[in-house]
Predict the structure.
Amino acid sequence: MSEPTPCAYDKNNPFPAKLKVRCRANAPESQKETVHLEIDLTGSGLVYKSGDSLGVFPRNTTQLVDAVLKAYKFSGDESVTLPKTETTLSLRDALTTQFALGAITKKFVQFVHDNAACDCDKAKLAEVLGNADPVAQKAWIDARHVLDLGEEFPSVKCEAQAFIEQLRKLMPRLYSISSSPEFVGKDSVHLTVAVVRYETNGRKRDGVCSTFLGEYAQVGETTLPVFVSNSHFGPPADLDAPVIMVGPGTGIAPFRSFVQDRAARGAKGKNWLFFGDQRVKTDFLYQAEWEKALADGLLTRLDCAWSRDQDYKIYVQDKIREAGAEVWKWLNDEGAYFYICGDAKRMAKDVEAALIDIFKTYGGLDDAGAAAKLKELKAAGRYQKDVY
């Protein structure tokens, strides 16, 4: 039997996919903006499984590129050669597809200083660069993007090639896949994306890739350069094993894939989902799907935490503690797998702390024993995280 032909598309040669579907995943009155996306992989040869991520190369918007060209006094028609390659593009095309126009570095501030023609601009930038307070210096730099420096220090004048050599490469973003190919078909892949919008230095900013996907990419028209990033994160091979999934916000993405996958494979193992967000009326992502899964028996239990629906905050870790006795039973007596997806800074740590408490309260373990229990689950692949 011959080996399967390797896919020709990867991070270095992404597949030009098309966006098939984009719809709002939460209510318009929500304080968040989350979109459900369906992308066409027909003809790509790309293969993914539940737990994998999709890499997407974004583009900078025409409005931003135009503003940067104006601020640095370029026409956009200048010819530039991409660093470490022989590829030549117009400056406009290079800024659109190849370079990050967001956060700047101290090196970039130095470059603007060195190319400023006005003594006043040089003095102001020298003051920033010479600031003996590293925290204040970092705060000043972190608040500014490429466009800010061109507009705040208008005397800067440089060659196009030198300019792009100061910029960081526009990197792909990885999104947890929220579909199973066994369920939706191998030529379709779904994403659940939180559109990022924020403000720094008195300016409104957009997350480069999230707004590209959530607003600027045209359904059926815009090319999305994509690739599959394989992961060890995924549902158990044992179709009879129980599964506990913790995915607040867009952390729900891989678990939608898990449940689809287990349904398609006829898994008999129980599925328990912990989901959390701000409000039940506006932020219950895929509510109809979860309610149907419960009714059909695909989902055994669903515990939701709504942080803004009462005077005090309720989070997924609180719901896990409330169900501590049952969580212990699933993990200790029934061999369940435990998964976390989402925020690494707080949520994942808080969930892990809740598990440790459960091991001590319901398992009768001391601190060392509880830590050893968690280590044992990790070693067996029964405790997995996909956090960011």
Notes: The mean pLDDT is 96. The two ends are 40 Å apart (CA to CA).
